[in-house]
Amino acid sequence: MKTADIAVTGLGLVTPAGVGVQTTWDGLLSGRSLAATDEQLAGLPVDFSCRVPDFDPTARLGRRLSWRIDRFIQMGLVAAREAVTDAGWDPAAWDGARVAVVLGNGSGGNDHAHRDYELLNRGRYKSISPLCITRAVSNMLAGELSADLQALGPSLVTSTACASGGTAIGVARGLLASSMCDIVITGGSESVCRPMAAAGFGQMGALSTRVHDPAGACRPFDADRDGFVLGEGAGVLVLERLADARARNAPVRALVAGYGASADGYHFSSPDPEGQGVVRAIHAALADAALSASDIDHINAHGTSTQLNDVSEARALCSVFGTPPPVTANKSVLGHSIGGAGAIEAAVTVLSLHHQTIPPIANLDRLDPEIDLDVVTKAPRSHRLRAALSNSIGFGGQNAVLAFRAP
Predict the structure, then answer these.
(1) What is the mean predicted confidence (pLDDT) over 334-339?
(2) Comparing C-alpha atoms, which of 219, 189, 399, 373 is closest to residue 299?
(3) How far apart are CA 157 and CA 23, in angstroms?
(4) Number of neighbours of residue 39 by Cβ within 10 angstroms
(5) CA dihedral defined by 286, 1, 174, 291, rounded to 10 degrees?
(6) Are 364 and 242 in contact, with CB atoms under 8 Å apart?
(7) Alpha helices in 14-70 (DSSP H)
(8) What is the pLDDT of residues 127-138, one digit of tens each?
(9) Distance between CA 175 and CA 196 in Å, rounded?
(10) How many C-beta neighbours within 10 Å does residue 288 have?
(11) How many alpha carbons lie under 13 Å from residue 10 in its C-beta half-sphere?
(12) How much is the pLDDT for 111?
Protein backbone atom coordinates (compact mmCIF):
# COMPACT_ATOMS: atom_id res chain seq x y z
CA MET A 1 0.00 0.00 0.00
CA LYS A 2 1.53 3.30 -1.11
CA THR A 3 1.10 6.24 1.25
CA ALA A 4 -0.54 8.05 -1.68
CA ASP A 5 -3.43 5.59 -1.53
CA ILE A 6 -5.29 7.55 1.17
CA ALA A 7 -8.85 8.43 0.23
CA VAL A 8 -11.04 11.34 1.27
CA THR A 9 -14.43 9.71 1.81
CA GLY A 10 -16.29 12.47 3.64
CA LEU A 11 -16.39 16.26 3.92
CA GLY A 12 -17.98 18.65 6.40
CA LEU A 13 -17.89 22.45 6.41
CA VAL A 14 -19.05 25.30 8.61
CA THR A 15 -17.99 28.65 7.13
CA PRO A 16 -19.14 32.26 6.75
CA ALA A 17 -21.03 31.04 3.68
CA GLY A 18 -23.17 28.88 6.00
CA VAL A 19 -23.39 25.37 7.39
CA GLY A 20 -22.76 22.49 5.02
CA VAL A 21 -20.51 21.58 2.12
CA GLN A 22 -22.89 22.63 -0.65
CA THR A 23 -23.63 25.98 0.98
CA THR A 24 -19.93 26.80 1.21
CA TRP A 25 -19.25 25.68 -2.37
CA ASP A 26 -22.11 27.83 -3.68
CA GLY A 27 -20.82 30.80 -1.68
CA LEU A 28 -17.34 30.44 -3.13
CA LEU A 29 -18.63 30.14 -6.69
CA SER A 30 -20.45 33.46 -6.24
CA GLY A 31 -17.08 35.18 -5.94
CA ARG A 32 -18.42 37.72 -3.42
CA SER A 33 -16.78 38.47 -0.09
CA LEU A 34 -18.83 37.72 3.02
CA ALA A 35 -17.15 40.32 5.23
CA ALA A 36 -19.50 42.67 7.10
CA THR A 37 -19.56 45.05 10.05
CA ASP A 38 -19.41 43.04 13.29
CA GLU A 39 -21.25 44.49 16.30
CA GLN A 40 -18.99 42.50 18.64
CA LEU A 41 -16.03 44.51 17.34
CA ALA A 42 -17.74 47.89 17.69
CA GLY A 43 -15.41 50.68 18.78
CA LEU A 44 -12.26 49.05 17.44
CA PRO A 45 -10.30 50.50 14.50
CA VAL A 46 -11.21 47.38 12.50
CA ASP A 47 -14.85 46.59 13.21
CA PHE A 48 -15.70 44.00 10.56
CA SER A 49 -15.19 40.26 10.11
CA CYS A 50 -16.47 37.13 8.38
CA ARG A 51 -18.76 35.32 10.82
CA VAL A 52 -20.74 32.11 10.31
CA PRO A 53 -24.31 33.36 9.82
CA ASP A 54 -27.25 32.08 11.85
CA PHE A 55 -25.19 29.39 13.56
CA ASP A 56 -27.44 27.93 16.29
CA PRO A 57 -25.43 25.34 18.23
CA THR A 58 -28.37 24.50 20.49
CA ALA A 59 -30.52 23.49 17.54
CA ARG A 60 -27.71 21.39 16.06
CA LEU A 61 -26.09 19.88 19.13
CA GLY A 62 -28.64 20.16 21.91
CA ARG A 63 -28.63 22.54 24.86
CA ARG A 64 -26.49 20.50 27.25
CA LEU A 65 -23.63 19.83 24.84
CA SER A 66 -23.59 23.25 23.19
CA TRP A 67 -23.55 24.98 26.61
CA ARG A 68 -20.53 22.96 27.73
CA ILE A 69 -18.23 23.69 24.79
CA ASP A 70 -16.81 26.79 23.13
CA ARG A 71 -17.81 28.02 19.69
CA PHE A 72 -14.74 26.61 17.92
CA ILE A 73 -15.60 23.13 19.23
CA GLN A 74 -19.27 23.55 18.34
CA MET A 75 -18.39 24.33 14.72
CA GLY A 76 -15.84 21.52 14.58
CA LEU A 77 -18.35 19.01 15.88
CA VAL A 78 -21.07 20.07 13.42
CA ALA A 79 -18.59 19.78 10.53
CA ALA A 80 -17.34 16.41 11.78
CA ARG A 81 -20.83 14.96 12.02
CA GLU A 82 -21.51 16.05 8.43
CA ALA A 83 -18.24 14.54 7.23
CA VAL A 84 -18.85 11.20 8.96
CA THR A 85 -22.37 11.01 7.51
CA ASP A 86 -21.04 11.98 4.07
CA ALA A 87 -18.54 9.11 4.32
CA GLY A 88 -21.36 6.66 4.99
CA TRP A 89 -20.24 5.78 8.51
CA ASP A 90 -22.36 5.19 11.59
CA PRO A 91 -20.20 5.73 14.71
CA ALA A 92 -22.42 3.28 16.57
CA ALA A 93 -21.27 0.55 14.20
CA TRP A 94 -17.55 1.19 13.73
CA ASP A 95 -14.61 -0.12 15.74
CA GLY A 96 -13.86 3.07 17.64
CA ALA A 97 -10.44 1.86 18.72
CA ARG A 98 -9.37 2.05 15.06
CA VAL A 99 -10.68 5.60 14.53
CA ALA A 100 -8.36 8.55 15.14
CA VAL A 101 -9.03 12.27 15.47
CA VAL A 102 -6.42 14.81 14.33
CA LEU A 103 -7.53 18.44 14.19
CA GLY A 104 -5.85 21.82 13.90
CA ASN A 105 -6.46 24.89 16.04
CA GLY A 106 -4.46 28.02 16.65
CA SER A 107 -5.80 29.79 19.72
CA GLY A 108 -8.34 27.71 21.65
CA GLY A 109 -11.65 28.97 22.97
CA ASN A 110 -11.87 32.71 22.45
CA ASP A 111 -15.59 33.20 23.08
CA HIS A 112 -15.87 32.02 26.68
CA ALA A 113 -12.35 33.20 27.53
CA HIS A 114 -13.36 36.74 26.50
CA ARG A 115 -16.39 36.60 28.81
CA ASP A 116 -14.38 35.17 31.69
CA TYR A 117 -11.71 37.88 31.33
CA GLU A 118 -14.45 40.50 31.57
CA LEU A 119 -15.79 38.91 34.76
CA LEU A 120 -12.31 38.76 36.27
CA ASN A 121 -11.61 42.40 35.39
CA ARG A 122 -14.81 43.38 37.18
CA GLY A 123 -13.73 41.49 40.29
CA ARG A 124 -16.32 38.76 39.82
CA TYR A 125 -13.92 35.88 40.38
CA LYS A 126 -16.60 33.54 41.75
CA SER A 127 -18.75 34.02 38.63
CA ILE A 128 -16.14 32.40 36.39
CA SER A 129 -17.36 28.99 35.22
CA PRO A 130 -15.63 25.81 36.39
CA LEU A 131 -15.67 24.98 32.66
CA CYS A 132 -13.39 27.95 31.97
CA ILE A 133 -10.33 25.81 31.22
CA THR A 134 -11.99 22.95 29.34
CA ARG A 135 -13.77 25.43 27.08
CA ALA A 136 -10.53 27.26 26.33
CA VAL A 137 -7.78 24.70 25.75
CA SER A 138 -7.15 23.62 22.16
CA ASN A 139 -6.96 19.88 22.81
CA MET A 140 -10.63 19.75 23.78
CA LEU A 141 -11.48 20.13 20.10
CA ALA A 142 -10.22 16.58 19.57
CA GLY A 143 -11.34 15.40 22.99
CA GLU A 144 -14.98 16.40 22.52
CA LEU A 145 -15.13 15.01 18.98
CA SER A 146 -13.59 11.73 20.14
CA ALA A 147 -16.24 11.39 22.83
CA ASP A 148 -19.15 12.43 20.63
CA LEU A 149 -18.21 10.09 17.78
CA GLN A 150 -16.71 7.31 19.91
CA ALA A 151 -13.43 7.64 18.06
CA LEU A 152 -11.13 5.90 20.54
CA GLY A 153 -7.82 5.78 18.66
CA PRO A 154 -5.12 8.48 18.69
CA SER A 155 -6.63 11.89 19.45
CA LEU A 156 -4.63 15.10 19.09
CA VAL A 157 -4.62 18.74 18.04
CA THR A 158 -1.89 20.33 15.94
CA SER A 159 -1.08 24.00 16.42
CA THR A 160 1.06 25.61 13.71
CA ALA A 161 -0.79 28.94 13.59
CA CYS A 162 -2.42 29.50 10.20
CA ALA A 163 -1.02 26.20 8.93
CA SER A 164 -2.69 24.15 11.69
CA GLY A 165 -5.47 22.62 9.59
CA GLY A 166 -3.10 21.61 6.81
CA THR A 167 -0.64 20.17 9.31
CA ALA A 168 -3.42 18.12 10.90
CA ILE A 169 -4.37 16.51 7.59
CA GLY A 170 -0.74 15.69 6.86
CA VAL A 171 -0.31 14.07 10.28
CA ALA A 172 -3.59 12.18 9.82
CA ARG A 173 -2.38 10.77 6.53
CA GLY A 174 0.76 9.55 8.24
CA LEU A 175 -1.24 7.74 10.93
CA LEU A 176 -3.17 5.85 8.25
CA ALA A 177 -0.03 5.04 6.30
CA SER A 178 1.56 3.59 9.45
CA SER A 179 -1.54 1.44 10.13
CA MET A 180 -2.07 3.01 13.57
CA CYS A 181 -5.74 3.39 12.64
CA ASP A 182 -8.20 2.65 9.85
CA ILE A 183 -10.17 5.91 9.79
CA VAL A 184 -9.13 9.46 10.67
CA ILE A 185 -11.43 12.41 11.32
CA THR A 186 -9.20 15.34 10.47
CA GLY A 187 -9.25 19.05 9.67
CA GLY A 188 -9.40 22.16 11.79
CA SER A 189 -11.63 24.71 13.50
CA GLU A 190 -11.23 28.24 14.82
CA SER A 191 -13.32 31.18 16.01
CA VAL A 192 -11.32 34.39 16.37
CA CYS A 193 -13.85 37.13 15.66
CA ARG A 194 -13.38 38.65 19.11
CA PRO A 195 -12.03 42.02 20.31
CA MET A 196 -8.67 40.69 21.57
CA ALA A 197 -7.84 39.01 18.26
CA ALA A 198 -9.04 42.01 16.26
CA ALA A 199 -6.99 44.40 18.41
CA GLY A 200 -3.89 42.20 18.38
CA PHE A 201 -3.85 41.49 14.65
CA GLY A 202 -4.75 45.13 14.03
CA GLN A 203 -1.78 46.37 16.05
CA MET A 204 0.46 44.11 13.98
CA GLY A 205 -0.82 45.77 10.83
CA ALA A 206 -2.08 42.41 9.54
CA LEU A 207 -5.76 43.37 9.12
CA SER A 208 -7.34 45.32 6.31
CA THR A 209 -8.53 48.72 7.54
CA ARG A 210 -11.06 49.17 4.77
CA VAL A 211 -13.85 49.93 7.25
CA HIS A 212 -15.78 51.90 4.65
CA ASP A 213 -16.00 48.80 2.44
CA PRO A 214 -15.75 45.53 4.42
CA ALA A 215 -16.91 43.41 1.48
CA GLY A 216 -14.06 44.81 -0.61
CA ALA A 217 -11.41 44.46 2.08
CA CYS A 218 -9.83 41.06 1.46
CA ARG A 219 -8.22 41.10 -1.99
CA PRO A 220 -5.43 38.54 -2.36
CA PHE A 221 -2.78 39.37 -4.97
CA ASP A 222 -4.48 42.70 -5.77
CA ALA A 223 -2.28 45.78 -6.04
CA ASP A 224 -4.45 47.60 -3.48
CA ARG A 225 -4.54 44.90 -0.80
CA ASP A 226 -3.89 46.03 2.76
CA GLY A 227 -4.45 42.99 4.99
CA PHE A 228 -6.72 40.08 5.79
CA VAL A 229 -10.18 39.86 7.34
CA LEU A 230 -10.80 37.87 10.51
CA GLY A 231 -12.99 34.84 9.93
CA GLU A 232 -14.16 31.67 11.62
CA GLY A 233 -15.16 28.19 10.60
CA ALA A 234 -14.39 24.50 10.50
CA GLY A 235 -13.42 22.02 7.82
CA VAL A 236 -13.37 18.27 8.45
CA LEU A 237 -12.33 15.40 6.18
CA VAL A 238 -12.73 11.67 6.75
CA LEU A 239 -9.68 9.76 5.53
CA GLU A 240 -9.33 6.02 4.94
CA ARG A 241 -6.97 3.76 3.05
CA LEU A 242 -8.22 3.53 -0.52
CA ALA A 243 -8.46 -0.25 -0.43
CA ASP A 244 -10.67 -0.08 2.68
CA ALA A 245 -12.90 2.57 1.13
CA ARG A 246 -13.35 0.51 -2.03
CA ALA A 247 -14.06 -2.63 -0.05
CA ARG A 248 -17.10 -0.97 1.52
CA ASN A 249 -18.11 0.85 -1.69
CA ALA A 250 -17.57 4.22 -0.06
CA PRO A 251 -17.53 7.44 -2.06
CA VAL A 252 -13.97 8.54 -2.86
CA ARG A 253 -13.87 12.32 -3.17
CA ALA A 254 -10.13 12.57 -3.80
CA LEU A 255 -6.80 11.08 -2.76
CA VAL A 256 -4.48 12.77 -0.28
CA ALA A 257 -1.43 12.07 -2.40
CA GLY A 258 1.31 13.95 -0.60
CA TYR A 259 2.26 16.21 2.30
CA GLY A 260 5.18 18.54 2.75
CA ALA A 261 6.13 20.68 5.73
CA SER A 262 8.95 23.13 6.41
CA ALA A 263 10.07 26.06 8.52
CA ASP A 264 11.27 29.37 7.10
CA GLY A 265 13.69 29.99 9.97
CA TYR A 266 13.45 33.65 9.00
CA HIS A 267 11.21 35.79 11.25
CA PHE A 268 8.58 35.27 13.93
CA SER A 269 5.78 36.78 11.81
CA SER A 270 7.08 37.93 8.40
CA PRO A 271 7.56 35.36 5.61
CA ASP A 272 10.84 34.75 3.85
CA PRO A 273 10.63 37.32 1.01
CA GLU A 274 11.63 34.71 -1.58
CA GLY A 275 9.33 32.04 -0.15
CA GLN A 276 12.09 29.46 0.14
CA GLY A 277 10.36 27.66 3.01
CA VAL A 278 7.22 27.31 0.91
CA VAL A 279 9.36 26.10 -2.01
CA ARG A 280 10.79 23.33 0.18
CA ALA A 281 7.34 22.32 1.42
CA ILE A 282 5.96 22.16 -2.14
CA HIS A 283 8.90 20.06 -3.34
CA ALA A 284 8.42 17.73 -0.35
CA ALA A 285 4.70 17.34 -1.09
CA LEU A 286 5.36 16.61 -4.76
CA ALA A 287 8.06 14.07 -3.93
CA ASP A 288 5.81 12.40 -1.36
CA ALA A 289 3.04 12.17 -3.97
CA ALA A 290 5.41 10.97 -6.72
CA LEU A 291 4.20 13.91 -8.81
CA SER A 292 6.12 16.44 -10.86
CA ALA A 293 5.36 20.14 -11.07
CA SER A 294 3.82 19.58 -14.52
CA ASP A 295 1.25 17.20 -12.98
CA ILE A 296 -0.32 19.98 -10.89
CA ASP A 297 -3.28 21.64 -12.56
CA HIS A 298 -4.39 24.03 -9.80
CA ILE A 299 -3.16 25.69 -6.61
CA ASN A 300 -5.37 26.79 -3.73
CA ALA A 301 -3.09 29.48 -2.34
CA HIS A 302 -2.75 30.65 1.24
CA GLY A 303 -3.41 34.13 -0.18
CA THR A 304 -3.92 36.25 2.92
CA SER A 305 -4.16 39.63 1.16
CA THR A 306 -1.19 40.97 3.12
CA GLN A 307 1.55 42.80 1.27
CA LEU A 308 4.45 40.54 2.20
CA ASN A 309 2.74 37.15 2.21
CA ASP A 310 1.16 37.38 -1.23
CA VAL A 311 4.40 38.42 -2.96
CA SER A 312 6.41 35.79 -1.08
CA GLU A 313 3.96 33.00 -1.95
CA ALA A 314 3.79 34.09 -5.59
CA ARG A 315 7.59 34.02 -5.83
CA ALA A 316 7.62 30.54 -4.32
CA LEU A 317 5.09 29.29 -6.88
CA CYS A 318 7.05 30.78 -9.77
CA SER A 319 10.24 29.26 -8.40
CA VAL A 320 8.73 25.77 -8.43
CA PHE A 321 6.49 25.90 -11.47
CA GLY A 322 7.98 28.56 -13.74
CA THR A 323 4.53 29.33 -15.04
CA PRO A 324 2.21 28.22 -12.22
CA PRO A 325 -1.17 26.62 -12.99
CA PRO A 326 -4.41 28.54 -12.20
CA VAL A 327 -4.53 29.90 -8.67
CA THR A 328 -7.39 30.78 -6.32
CA ALA A 329 -7.54 32.08 -2.74
CA ASN A 330 -10.63 31.29 -0.66
CA LYS A 331 -9.90 33.85 2.09
CA SER A 332 -11.11 36.56 -0.27
CA VAL A 333 -14.64 35.22 0.22
CA LEU A 334 -14.54 33.49 3.62
CA GLY A 335 -11.99 35.56 5.55
CA HIS A 336 -9.09 34.06 7.49
CA SER A 337 -10.11 31.46 10.06
CA ILE A 338 -6.50 30.97 11.25
CA GLY A 339 -6.25 27.34 12.48
CA GLY A 340 -9.34 26.35 10.48
CA ALA A 341 -8.25 27.95 7.22
CA GLY A 342 -5.98 25.19 5.92
CA ALA A 343 -8.62 22.53 6.55
CA ILE A 344 -11.39 24.53 4.90
CA GLU A 345 -9.18 25.21 1.90
CA ALA A 346 -8.15 21.55 1.68
CA ALA A 347 -11.83 20.59 1.57
CA VAL A 348 -12.43 23.20 -1.13
CA THR A 349 -9.50 21.80 -3.13
CA VAL A 350 -11.17 18.38 -2.96
CA LEU A 351 -14.41 19.96 -4.19
CA SER A 352 -12.55 21.65 -7.07
CA LEU A 353 -11.19 18.26 -8.14
CA HIS A 354 -14.64 16.70 -7.84
CA HIS A 355 -16.42 19.43 -9.82
CA GLN A 356 -13.47 20.15 -12.16
CA THR A 357 -14.05 23.79 -11.33
CA ILE A 358 -11.94 26.50 -9.69
CA PRO A 359 -13.83 29.12 -7.65
CA PRO A 360 -12.79 32.73 -8.25
CA ILE A 361 -10.88 35.15 -6.03
CA ALA A 362 -13.09 38.00 -4.85
CA ASN A 363 -12.09 41.66 -5.17
CA LEU A 364 -9.13 41.11 -7.48
CA ASP A 365 -9.45 44.16 -9.68
CA ARG A 366 -5.78 44.89 -10.54
CA LEU A 367 -3.10 42.23 -10.20
CA ASP A 368 -0.01 43.41 -8.33
CA PRO A 369 2.70 44.01 -10.97
CA GLU A 370 5.14 42.05 -8.75
CA ILE A 371 2.93 38.97 -8.94
CA ASP A 372 3.05 36.82 -12.07
CA LEU A 373 0.24 34.32 -11.56
CA ASP A 374 -2.74 33.05 -13.54
CA VAL A 375 -5.39 34.00 -11.00
CA VAL A 376 -9.00 32.90 -11.33
CA THR A 377 -11.20 35.94 -10.82
CA LYS A 378 -14.67 37.32 -11.58
CA ALA A 379 -16.22 33.90 -12.34
CA PRO A 380 -15.59 30.17 -11.72
CA ARG A 381 -13.34 28.48 -14.23
CA SER A 382 -13.96 25.00 -15.59
CA HIS A 383 -10.61 23.29 -15.93
CA ARG A 384 -9.22 19.79 -16.27
CA LEU A 385 -7.93 18.99 -12.80
CA ARG A 386 -5.91 15.83 -12.23
CA ALA A 387 -3.99 17.04 -9.19
CA ALA A 388 -3.93 20.17 -7.06
CA LEU A 389 -2.06 21.71 -4.13
CA SER A 390 -3.41 23.42 -1.03
CA ASN A 391 -0.89 25.78 0.63
CA SER A 392 -0.95 26.89 4.27
CA ILE A 393 1.55 29.33 5.79
CA GLY A 394 1.67 30.23 9.48
CA PHE A 395 3.31 32.69 11.83
CA GLY A 396 6.65 31.37 12.96
CA GLY A 397 7.44 30.45 9.36
CA GLN A 398 5.53 27.16 9.51
CA ASN A 399 4.45 25.81 6.13
CA ALA A 400 2.18 22.91 5.19
CA VAL A 401 1.42 21.84 1.63
CA LEU A 402 -1.05 19.10 0.70
CA ALA A 403 -1.17 17.42 -2.70
CA PHE A 404 -4.52 15.97 -3.79
CA ARG A 405 -5.31 13.79 -6.78
CA ALA A 406 -8.62 13.18 -8.47
CA PRO A 407 -9.74 9.59 -7.79
Answers:
(1) 98
(2) 373
(3) 27
(4) 8
(5) 0
(6) no
(7) 21-30, 57-61, 63-68
(8) 888 888 888 899
(9) 35
(10) 20
(11) 25
(12) 82
